[in-house]
């Protein structure tokens, strides 16, 4: 595809309607006028967009949001109503020619270079390098930051969840209702998918981004049925023979047969719940996944528990999801008295019995149930209990697939919850994750900044007593150096005038600010991190389907050593500068330092 | 205005394009099909939307988002492409009639009652009561939650900032770049304004919502000028006489005259900075507000400080904004050596000298400068230092208005920072607040839920071992009872069949779940909290301008006793139920409780 074709394709792509030039801080526009008025229309600048610290106390970040930045550049244009608004808002003395200048402004003279979207990235290495007219480069600052900050934060958060959950567990994003505004939810769905989630509950995200959408029913569905009389239609035709079956009769029959396995009597289970599950199964015979924790069983099992359960519960570690759970109080005291089940269990057993009954009835009609969702209580323990029941049913009725039923868990889950569940040996196949994921509760903002590093060919350095805040001046290139084992060793920033590092040649890598920290590296592979994405008013990279960006996240993460990715006390990945850039920084620093500077 | 006119006005109002029926969880749609398929099309339900805990460890919440909810109801409609997407997404067995049903669906049979937007609200008291067909009431759940949760969280956060900042300080929202997505930023601007902020940097929010927008320039503006040679034009005409003046000459002259007051020599100040400030002043002679902390002074003042400064600094409490500040290290050690200024001061003095010089030059041209912005360092101390210089200049040159120059502070400010600055006696007139405000860093999500409380006239109760999670069943009304001093005493939930409490008549108010907690209240005023907002397909309340909602927040907060609003250990406000509702809840509870229940 030619650049022009790519550009017009990008122009057609769906873009959030509010991503437009006025989605910015006013000071960008007042500065634009002051630059314009000061004869700086032809000044040429280089800005770096980067962050200073990885989020979530981790040592890596996933870069995302690039495609949205490109759409923004492609469509950058002040509408008549924008200009009208600015005329009313800015002081009266603004020269009318400035508004004419704004009216015609596009981003065609901007050149944008960027790291590939979905790559693992590190502090101080610019994610975007923006070159071009000072005024325009300044005008796009806030919007670029807005588009990169949350996207990258979200993708990083999702990637971290994926790492702790492991490859074999599905992760679904369920956070729309708690997201920071409608678009906070939509962005969360998109970047959670990029970061490694398997789907979302957000239907609009599914429609817009072609992300798999998932969901079955809520507690309110169950409570909207009071008794078996509430079932409207009981008939389900066999999947193959099309013979009509009475699903109510089959289910009540099965409920009797499996009650011993699930260890409660049919009378103890809720009939309203059974009615709800039968109705749901008739509506979705191929997609029967039931929420099973709506009701307590109706009566304690006075007889005590069969030995296998008692044994299991004694080994029960009492895990409780970190907040919002119902059972804290009970888990603190001995939970199994002569009255029988713990509260934790009671809440599951009615649903489990009803689910198994309907699932077995569905099986008679040629359908296989999908599984259950647990939304409260001790998720590790309940998942083990449920799996055990499934295994027993599989064995009792010679239905091996019953062992493989999906168990979804979805109560206020975060990274730590998953780590703790892993320790306890849960039997969960899928996590549905909401608030903590979509609001990035542990750290709700990434601190990307956008700094002027060169103007009219002259480097700019922002000094600060806090060395972490000193900017690395000038037009730079970034390289990732890999070792023989395929792992990334170090990211190296160089002045753009320097030759690229070469495979097999030793490169002096220096800490940007500490003279004593330096090392020679002989790379087995060198990756030039920047790609030109936008130049001469055209997009120069092919937009990738989300699925490819998602794959890039995983392949990029695989190049990181495990100790950099681990949850507890990860090792920092090294970011270095070339010797040439080191000297350049420190010469400039000296020129700009206060005379008499001691530190 | 008639209901029809209100409705069509609301239909025309700007709405975020993504607020549409598919902005929901898939399970709402699968449940809708299961309800439809189970013959529940004519079932009528009542849902309550409420939260269980106030955010930010406070004891109040501001309700916001209602107008967006109404726009959503007005425009609720599945487009052809929505239906097409759902057909592809749902299983093949879905009956085609269901899609026809969805296609024609509107919210006209829904009745929405709500507390007035901008009111102070409390846990368990429903903010919205949704009545109508079960299927439709269920389908709108997620979107309503999304629209209320963040709006209310944000308005509450902003109101808390306003309370700690006091009435006499301006508050500006500067958070767009760190917000959770573009619309997270836009929503933050809107609801921060409602909560009590005075303006935003977000230009699009200004355009959409008619919020005052503010902003001047960034550090990059200053660093884009290297020397006085970078000034393009030096001429400014006098505001009244229109006589042209040379602002560069005037400024350099003034710099010499005020250098003793600001206590650095002109040679120590940055010329690039002076060039930038002159250029900015020429562009905005009526709006000259300068960022003054870009450069260190060039040389230590070896002679030591004049006594007044030394005295001041000895009394300096060493406050440092809680994170991201430059000076932590230095503030831990004695900061004033024989070398002269602390780092904190050095960063301010160059900018302060240059600002005062340009402000005085502007004064010669008939313009009054606005003030300065400080974006780093010890904000309390620096503001005092700056104010002291302004006072001295005011006195030295007989310009009393110079004392009144605005000091804006904007470095990573949160509620605690402001409280701490207050303790130290700062001289700041305006805070610009970003990340902590717009992402609600202290608690990034409000946990509103949406619970079925009645179906076909039958109450529904959701039981839980956690009493806080038990829902209050049935169709209810809510009243706020006020004492003789005008303060709100208690919120009272009643069954809708009960007569409203009356002024001067004693009312028995009971804790919903603790039998022993009850009290008689004799209200001096009774406010019925619910207003019908949407009925028979029409909006029934007049949409209020943002400014009125903003005023409502402050007037509503004034009805709360101070101890409920205080920052540390606030007193919980009481929410009660009538005796009738109490008995109703507990009868239902008993009917639904497991036999043998002990707790």
Describe the structure.
Two copies of one chain form a homodimer. With 599 residues, the first copy, chain A, is of the alpha/beta class. Chain A folds into two domains: 3-159 and 443-592, nicotinate phosphoribosyltransferase, CATH 3.20.140; 218-310 and 324-410, no CATH class. Chain A has 21 helices and 23 strands. In chain A, the strands form five sheets. A seven-stranded antiparallel sheet of chain A has the order 15-14-1-5-3-21-22. A six-stranded parallel sheet of chain A has the order 7-6-13-12-11-10. A six-stranded mixed sheet of chain A has the order 19-18-23-17-16-20. In chain A, a hairpin with a 6-residue loop joins strand 8 and strand 9 (244-246). In chain A, helix 8 packs across helix 19 (546-558). The longest helix of chain A has 25 residues, at 141-165. The radius of gyration of chain A is 30 Å and the shape is elongated. In chain A, 55% of the residues are buried. The model of chain A is unreliable at 299-339 (pLDDT under 50). Chains A and B meet through helix 2, helix 4, helix 7, helix 8 and helix 9 of A and helix 2, helix 4, helix 7, helix 8 and helix 9 of B. Chains A, B: Keywords: Ligase, Phosphoprotein, Pyridine nucleotide biosynthesis, Transferase. Chains A, B: It catalyses: 5-phospho-alpha-D-ribose 1-diphosphate + nicotinate + ATP + H2O = nicotinate beta-D-ribonucleotide + ADP + phosphate + diphosphate. Chains A, B: Residues 370-471 form the Nicotinate/nicotinamide phosphoribosyltransferase domain. Chains A, B: Residues 476-582 form the Nicotinate phosphoribosyltransferase C-terminal domain. Chains A, B: Its EC number is 6.3.4.21.
């Amino acid at each position: 595809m030619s650049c022009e074709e790519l550009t017009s394709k990008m122009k057609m792509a769906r873009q959030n309607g509010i991503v437009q030039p006025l989605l910015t801080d006013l000071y960008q526009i007042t500065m634009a006028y002051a630059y314009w008025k000061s004869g700086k229309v032809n000044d040429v600048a280089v800005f770096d967009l980067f962050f200073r610290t990885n989020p979530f106390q981790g040592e890596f970040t996933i870069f995302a949001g690039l495609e949205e930045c490109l759409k923004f550049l492609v469509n950058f244009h002040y509408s008549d109503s924008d200009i009208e608004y600015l005329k009313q808002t800015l002081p009266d003395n603004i020269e009318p020619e400035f508004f004419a200048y704004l009216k015609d402004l596009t981003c065609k003279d901007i050149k944008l270079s960027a790291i590939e979207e979905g790559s693992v990235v590190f502090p101080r290495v610019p994610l975007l390098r923006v070159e071009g007219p000072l005024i325009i480069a300044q005008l796009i600052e806030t919007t670029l930051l807005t588009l990169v900050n949350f996207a990258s934060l979200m993708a990083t958060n999702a990637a971290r969840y994926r790492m702790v959950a492991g490859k074999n567990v599905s992760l679904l994003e369920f956070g729309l209702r708690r997201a920071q505004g409608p678009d906070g939810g939509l962005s969360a769905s998109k970047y959670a998918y990029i970061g490694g989630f398997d789907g979302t509950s957000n239907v609009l995200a599914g429609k817009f981004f072609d992300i798999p959408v998932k969901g079955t029913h809520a507690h309110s569905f169950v409570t909207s049925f009071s008794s078996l009389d509430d079932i409207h239609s009981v008939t389900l035709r066999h999947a193959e023979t099309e013979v009509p079956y009475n699903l109510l009769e089959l289910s009540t029959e099965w409920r009797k047969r499996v009650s011993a396995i699930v260890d409660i009597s049919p009378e103890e289970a809720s009939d309203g719940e059974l009615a709800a599950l039968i109705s749901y199964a008739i509506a979705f015979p191929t997609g029967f996944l039931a929420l099973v924790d709506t009701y307590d069983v109706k009566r304690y099992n006075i007889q005590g528990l069969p030995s296998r359960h008692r044994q299991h519960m004694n080994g029960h570690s009492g895990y409780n999801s970190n907040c919002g759970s119902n059972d804290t109080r009970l888990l603190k005291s001995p939970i199994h008295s002569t009255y029988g089940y713990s509260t934790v269990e009671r809440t599951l057993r009615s649903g489990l019995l009803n689910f198994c009954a309907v699932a077995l009835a569905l099986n008679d009609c040629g359908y296989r149930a999908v599984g259950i969702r647990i939304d409260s209580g001790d998720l590790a323990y309940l998942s083990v209990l449920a799996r055990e029941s499934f295994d027993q049913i599989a064995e009792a009725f010679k239905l091996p697939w019953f062992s493989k039923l999906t168990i979804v868990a979805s109560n206020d889950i975060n990274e730590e919850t998953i780590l703790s569940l892993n320790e306890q040996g849960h039997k969960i196949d899928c996590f549905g994750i909401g608030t903590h994921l979509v609001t990035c509760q542990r750290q709700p903002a990434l601190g990307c900044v956008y700094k002027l590093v060169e103007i009219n060919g002259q480097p700019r350095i922002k000094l600060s007593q806090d060395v972490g805040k000193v900017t690395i001046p000038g037009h730079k290139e970034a390289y990732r150096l890999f070792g023989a084992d395929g792992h990334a060793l170090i990211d190296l920033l160089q002045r753009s005038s320097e030759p690229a590092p070469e495979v097999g040649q030793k490169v002096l890598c220096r800490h940007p600010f500490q003279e004593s920290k330096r090392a020679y590296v002989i790379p087995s592979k060198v990756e030039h991190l920047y790609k030109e994405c936008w130049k001469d008013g055209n997009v120069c990279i092919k937009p990738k389907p989300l699925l490819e960006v998602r794959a890039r996240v995983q392949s990029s993460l695989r190049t990181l050593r495990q100790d950099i990715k681990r949850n507890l006390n990860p090792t920092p990945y090294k970011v270095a500068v070339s010797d040439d850039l080191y000297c350049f920084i420190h010469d400039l620093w000296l020129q700009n330092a206060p005379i008499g500077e001691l530190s």
